[in-house]
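Q: How would the structure tokens look for this protein?
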Amino acid sequence: MTAPLRYDIDLWPGCPAEDQKRNGRCWIYASLAPLRRRICERFGLSDFHFSTNYIYYYDQLQKSEAFLDAMIAQRAAHMNDSRLTELLREPISSVGQWSYFAALVDGHGVVPLDAMPDTPAAEDGAALTLRLGTLLREGAYRIRTEEDAGKARKVTMEAIRRTLDEALGKPPEFISWQGGTITPREFLRSVCGYDPHDYILLMHHPSDRWPAPCAYHETEEPERRDPLLTMLSVDMETMKALVLRQLRGGEPVVIGADVRHAVRRPKGLMDTARLGEPRLSKADAIAYKDISACHVLCIDGAATEDNGHPTWWRALDSHGSETGLTGHYDMSDAWFEAYVLNAAVKKAYLSSALRARLDSPVYMPKSERF
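A: Here is the predicted structure in token form.
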């Protein structure tokens, strides 16, 4: 089978791809792609750019807070404790997925690019990650050795915020839009018409230990669970049907996938038939850590057979128009089945039985996820 020259569902023909440059913020770019399309449609624009730097700022701030809170919880743990060791090994990173994006914009909204432009530190995040990691480890040391752990946390967070202000700039509290002034949260909901609570992150995790359909959450204590971090595990046919339904409804779908396998970037091709069939089953590949949702993309098109089943998908990447097919990939349906691990879809498309599952998620440790 050859990749189609034409998609019968193509939500944004000629969509200009953005370039995340040297950072791990694919999840922010991909999650903003459907909002870019909304803005362009609503206001008759050929393109529009959000500030990924704005979301990145709050991501790094919240990850820093979470690390220090974990250090306080592990304050009495021995230095050889495996949980403590793992925390100290990587105090902070720039990676994420759609659910983290949803939680961040729910609290802080979004802003146009000109309200908080990229900086060199945002475009190449390695130095900033290293600096923040050092500050957080120093904070962990103070939390474990000083009498007042709360004060040590406060001092560390002040240093973190100063560092972020200097490296990324200060996030705006208000933005100008069409002659008026609004908050970033108002811009998200009123101008973009987007409420992250309308969506759920589907997960394909074919494992006897984690059966589907079932809702899972990364937080063990029910009273501390943010519903935006709930994941709904479904079988592959259900996931593809819901993704296709959302595309037919006129909205792109954010996905998490492993792009390290069976991908030819210069040709913009993701195809197991021509580039290598997986040797392990998907369940075994997940269990043995051979695949993970290491990259986030946005599906904005599909080619279907007469019976309505998809044969190819069109995926927008965030490495500029010079990669792939002007920033896009032709993704075979077999590749989708093998390497797509999650997808954010509207809850309105779920059956009543699946929606009911969201009310009682089961705890799934992060180590068991991908």
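Residues 143 and 150 are 8 Å apart (CA to CA).

The chain has a mean pLDDT of 95.

Upvote if useful.
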